[in-house]
Structure formats: C-alpha cells, structure tokens
C-alpha cells in the first residue's frame, strides 16, 4: 500500500524539483537586473548622502544634505509643487478615466470601440511629441489663440510654463494605463450583480456607489499607485511644459546635477523622491496583497 | 391581489433575431407559472422583459392594471432571483438583504426586523453576519430568494434559480420554494428548462419554442395531452413515430396501429409507459437493450427499419436482447400539420 502511494506521489515531487531551477533562473534575471539597476544605485545614493568625507578627508555620518533640503525654501517649494502636481493629476485621472472605463464596460457597438481607441491612443505617442503638440495647440500664439483671434476673441491664458502645463500633459499621458487598469477591474463586476441592484431599487448612481465602486476599489488603488509613481518621478513633460521655478523634482535633480554641479544635492533629492515613491508603492503592494488574500 | 398581464409582447434584437414573437399570458393572483422550453426559446428574454431588463419591441406588460412596459427595473413592483444568485460579495448576508430596504429609507429597527423574519422564512436564521462567499450554493440561492422576498414584490421572477445546483439540492430547494410561494401567495413567473422542475412546481406550464407559445396548461394536462409534436417530444419521454395512415391504420415498417383518421402522413406519439410488450415470433420489433432501474425497467426496441422505441415495463427480467416482440400500445396520440388530430383514451 505504502509502496503504491509513494510511487504515485514521487513523480510529482520529482517533476516539481526538476522545474524549480528553471523557475528560479527565470526569476533570477529580473531580480538581478533590479538589484543592479535599482537596489544598488539606491543603496549607493543613500550611503553616499549620509556617509560623507569631511574637510579632513575622514568618512563620517553626515545628514547635512538632508537638513539643507528640508530647510531650503526653494527645495521645499519644489517638493510641494511635485506633490501638488501628483495629487491633482491623480484626482483628474480618476475623474476622467472612471467615466470612460464605465462607458467602455457597459456600452457595446462601434462608438465605444472608437472611444476605446482614442483613450488608448496616448500610449503610442512619445512624451516629447505630446509636449510639442501641447505647445503648438495651447502655447502662446498656438492653434487655440489663432482660432480665437480669427473670431476676434482675446487670447487664452496659456497653461504653458505654469504648474498646469505638466498637469495637462501628465494626465493625457497617463490616461491609457489608468483606463486599462480600471477596465480590467470593471470586468470582474458581473452584469447580474448590477441588475440585482437595479431590481431592488437602486438607480445608476446608487449602483455605482454601493455595488461597482466597492468591487473595483483595488483596481482604483492599483491604477492610482501606478500613475502616482510615474508622475512623481516624471521628467520630460515637467521639464518641457512646466515653470522654471518652482519646478518638479525630476527637472530639479537634473539641474542640480548638470548646472549647479552638486551631485550630493541631486542624490539627496533622488533619495527623498525614492522615499515618497516607496510610500506610494506600499499602497500598491497592500492592495495586491489584500486582493490575493480574498 | 397581484395579476400579471402580458399582451402581444414581441422582442426583436438588432440584426432581426425574433426572441419573443407576439406572446400573451395572464398570470392570476398567487399563481406560479413556469416558462418551459429549450435554450433559445425566448423564455429568459420574456422574464427579463417583465423585470424591466429588456425593452419589448412591441406589446404591453401590466401589473395590477398598471402599464409597466417602459418602466426601468428599479421602478417595477417585481423581484428577480437570478441563475447565478448575483449576491454582492462585498456585503454580508444581512447587508445584501437590507440594501433594498435602505434605499427605501426604512428605519433601521424595521429593516432588522424584516431581514430577520425573511431569513427565518428561508431557513437561514442567524446567518446575517456571514459573508456570502462563506455559504454553500444552496444557501446562496436562499439568500438570493430572501433578498427578493424581503421587498414584498407583487411579482416574483425566478430565472432558472436552481440551474447551478446539484440534483439533490435542486429537488429539496424547489420543494422549499414552492412551500414559501404558497405560504406567501405571491404571483410567480418561473423560467426553467428542466421539465421535472416545471411539472413539480407549477400551477400552469407555458411551453415555449422559437419565441412562441406551444401550449399553456396544467402540468398533468401538458404531460398527458400534449397539443403539438414539439410538446410531446419535449415533456417527458415520448416515442414519436413518423408514418402513413392507410385505411384507418397507422403504418411504419411492420408496425401497425388502428388510427381512425383520414389517410396521409402522420406522427404517432406513444409514452413508454403506454406501450405494452408481448413476446412474439411475428415480424414487428425486437429488443435492443434492457435496462433495469430497480423500480421499473426500460426496454429499447427496434422496428424492422431501425426506428428505435422505448417501453417501460414492470418486470425487465422477462426480456432479453434480440427477442421478438409484439407492440401493444394502450394510448396513442396522432399529429398532422403540427397539431394534435387524434387522441385515444388511456
């Protein structure tokens, strides 16, 4: 009896054992890349900003670069504008993408296919092209101004080189990913759940609030985490569309490194940005863990 | 007093598919009517039109005289139990049941009272705190039923509610649902493709095919006196034999039956329990297979041209494969042009 049982079980164990090295090898490549390109530079930057060489050439524990960052008005303004841009973009993305995703989930036909194509389109447009298009349309003497001028109307107050410039560009750039994640979440809401809610008397808003939103809360968290991580550390669009002062952390780091030639200051800004991104990332990890726990 | 009238209702989907074609039905107060038919017969579409989830392209639906044809589901006095239960998994049992009452701004103590009463009714007292994912399939279906009943709808709509359950549970639940329906005297429209369910639960059965009514009758009448060959073949097991009537006799291969109708093609219908057998050396039929079910036996027979028939016998051990058989039908019905034209007394 025991022989038969062992004989039946052993091949499975052996198979699993054979597969294990292949699985580990497959995982090893991205893990090694992450250690090489993310973990090591991060650790290196943290180390180099807190263990610094003093005037006597001695290596010592020194938090002065962080003290400077968190006491410098300009650095704090840049951090504030980065947080403000991230927050406003997150809200706008939710407000814009949720109705689009709801429409795509519950509508069928040619029009919804066109809407989906339009919503996904920005994914295929490089940021630099997007910035150029933005300047040509909404910039000073851009297409909107020309059209307004043609009908004897005053020019618009252009958002170009204001904090709203990066907001518009980043929102447009992040719409596809946000819509796709929300759409995937909405796919798990069964039509019959919604019909059951309508059957007991819920109107469209009540169905959304009481039935749909609780079911896609994880997807909303994931979508926001992804967008926020990208927006907080973005460079191209804030650099091309944003104001010179205050500026978002991405362009601020670049300028500190290249123009001010202060690598420790730039690294300090990078570590601070990394810290904020870890906090945002924890939302994502938490939501994924909660989802898998269900 | 809740009466449902469905008048000449039609549903044509984009592309021209006619799911329901000029369907009419009156459901009396407290009556349970089963819509029975194969997949694609239009029964679920019809139920969804009564619930407000599909808009008819023609006709009228009234409940207690009020025209509800174009009202959205949330404004109809109907309650629907879905095939997949459609429970809200982010809410516990109590919240699932209380949701509709809260939307009606009912006081919290009254909500609690009503929910506990309906949980008691469906045999789930004390289950309010459970998450719906912690319940078995049968318990989930009872919660779905309770969710509809707690709102005291005028018309209860059941869309194949037991389809996802195993046979044993299905039989138990249909008895329970029938008991509850009779206790509450609630007018009910029940969709199923299971004839057992329809025959055991319904006051009347509507047999549907291709969006049209084939027959509306009491279950025993639908079974004993099917009006069309489709109903005859769909309800229960039936031997349907295509043949010719010549000089007052139905003829198919070597099998003949006296049939007092005009000459011409006809379909003969004989229930297995109405087809007696006798051992015989005469040409007629032969036993193909004998199956012993314990309580009775089923004999598969072949006519000379290979037509397969079934006969229900009390003593299957009396028959064996290859044996010559004389067929002795006790009750037959005959159909021509899709209508019953003859029925002998059983």
TrEMBL record, chain A:
GO terms for biological process: transmembrane transport. InterPro entries: MetI-like, MetI-like_sf. Residues 79-284 form the ABC transmembrane type-1 domain. Keywords: Cell membrane, Membrane, Transmembrane, Transmembrane helix, Transport. It holds the Pfam family BPD_transp_1. GO terms for cellular component: plasma membrane. It comes from the Bacteria. It is a multi-pass membrane protein. It is found in: Cell membrane. The chain crosses the membrane at residues 21-43, 81-104, 111-135, 167-189, 220-241, 266-285. The keyword Cell wall biogenesis/degradation does not apply. PANTHER family: INNER MEMBRANE ABC TRANSPORTER PERMEASE PROTEIN YDCU-RELATED, INNER MEMBRANE ABC TRANSPORTER PERMEASE PROTEIN YDCU-RELATED-RELATED. This is ABC transporter permease subunit.
From TrEMBL, chain B:
GO terms for biological process: quaternary ammonium group transport. Keywords: ATP-binding, Nucleotide-binding, Transport. One of its GO terms (cellular component) is ATP-binding cassette (ABC) transporter complex. Pfam families: ABC_tran, TOBE_2. SMART domains: AAA. Residues 4-235 form the ABC transporter domain. Gene3D superfamilies: 2.40.50.100, P-loop containing nucleotide triphosphate hydrolases. It comes from the Bacteria. InterPro entries: AAA+_ATPase, ABC_SmlMolc_Importer, ABC_transporter-like_ATP-bd, ABC_transporter-like_CS, Mo/tungstate-bd_C_term_dom, P-loop_NTPase, Transp-assoc_OB_typ2. One of its GO terms (molecular function) is ATP binding. Belongs to the ABC transporter superfamily. This is ABC transporter ATP-binding protein. The lineage of its organism: Bacteria, Pseudomonadati, Pseudomonadota, Alphaproteobacteria, Hyphomicrobiales.
């Amino acid at each position: 009896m025991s022989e038969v049982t062992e004989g039946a079980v052993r091949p499975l164990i052996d198979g699993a054992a054979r597969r294990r090295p292949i699985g580990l090898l497959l995982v090893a490549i991205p893990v090694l890349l992450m250690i090489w390109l993310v973990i090591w530079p991060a650790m290196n930057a943290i180390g180099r900003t807190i263990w610094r060489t003093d005037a006597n050439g001695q290596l010592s524990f020194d938090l002065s670069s962080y003290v400077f960052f968190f006491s410098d008005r300009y650095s704090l303004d840049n951090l504030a504008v980065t947080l403000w841009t991230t927050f406003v973009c997150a809200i706008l993305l939710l407000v814009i993408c949720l109705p689009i995703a709801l429409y795509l989930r519950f509508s069928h036909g040619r029009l919804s296919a066109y809407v989906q194509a339009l919503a996904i389109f920005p994914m295929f447009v490089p940021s630099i092209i997007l910035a150029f298009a933005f300047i040509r349309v909404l910039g000073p003497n851009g297409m909107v101004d020309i059209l307004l001028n043609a009908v004897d109307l005053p020019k618009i107050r252009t958002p170009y080189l204001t904090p709203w410039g990066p907001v518009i560009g980043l929102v447009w750039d992040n719409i596809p990913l946000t819509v796709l994640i929300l759409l995937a979440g909405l796919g798990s809401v069964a039509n019959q759940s919604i019909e059951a809610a309508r059957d007991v008397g819920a109107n469209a808003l009540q169905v959304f609030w009481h039935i749909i939103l609780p079911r896609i809360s994880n997807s909303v968290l994931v979508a926001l985490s992804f967008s926020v991580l990208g927006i907080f550390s973005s460079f191209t669009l804030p650099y091309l569309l944003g104001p010179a002062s205050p500026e978002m952390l991405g362009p601020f780091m670049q300028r500190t490194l290249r123009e001010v030639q202060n690598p420790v200051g730039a690294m300090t800004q990078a570590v601070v940005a990394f810290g904020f991104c870890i906090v945002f990332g924890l939302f994502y990890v938490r939501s994924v863990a909660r989802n898998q726990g269900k | 007093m809740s009466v449902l009238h469905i008048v000449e209702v039609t549903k044509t989907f984009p592309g021209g598919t006619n799911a329901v074609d000029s369907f009419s039905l009156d459901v009396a107060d407290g009556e349970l009517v089963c819509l029975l038919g194969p997949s694609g017969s239009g029964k679920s579409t019809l139920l969804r039109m009564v619930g407000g989830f599909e808009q008819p392209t023609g006709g009228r639906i009234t409940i207690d005289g009020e025209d509800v044809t174009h009202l959205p589901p949330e404004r109809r006095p109907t309650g629907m139990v879905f095939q997949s239960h459609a429970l809200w998994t982010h809410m516990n049992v109590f919240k699932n049941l209380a949701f509709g009452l809260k939307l009606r701004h009912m006081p919290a103590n009254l909500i609690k009272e009503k929910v506990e009463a309906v949980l008691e009714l469906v045999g789930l007292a004390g289950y309010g705190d459970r998450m719906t994912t912690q319940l078995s399939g049968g318990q989930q279906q009872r919660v779905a039923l309770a969710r509809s009943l707690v709102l005291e709808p005028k018309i209860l709509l059941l869309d194949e509610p037991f389809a996802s359950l195993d046979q044993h549970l299905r039989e138990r639940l249909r008895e329970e649902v029938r008991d509850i329906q009779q206790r509450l005297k609630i007018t009910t429209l029940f969709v199923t493709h299971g004839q057992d369910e329809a025959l055991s639960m319904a006051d009347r059965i509507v047999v549907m095919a291709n969006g049209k009514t084939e027959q509306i009758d009491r279950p025993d009448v639908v079974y004993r006196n099917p009006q069309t060959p489709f109903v005859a073949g769909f309800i229960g097991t039936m031997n349907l034999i295509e043949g010719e009537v010549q000089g007052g006799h139905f003829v198919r291969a070597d099998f003949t039956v006296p049939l007092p109708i005009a000459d011409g093609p006809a379909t003969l219908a004989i229930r297995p329990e109405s087809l007696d057998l006798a051992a015989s050396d005469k040409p007629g039929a032969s036993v193909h297979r004998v199956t012993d079910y314990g309580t009775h036996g089923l004999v598969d027979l072949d006519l000379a041209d290979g037509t397969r028939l079934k006969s229900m016998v009390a003593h299957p051990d009396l028959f064996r494969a290859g044996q010559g058989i004389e067929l002795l039908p006790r009750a037959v019905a005959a159909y021509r042009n899709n209508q019953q034209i003859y029925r002998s007394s059983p």
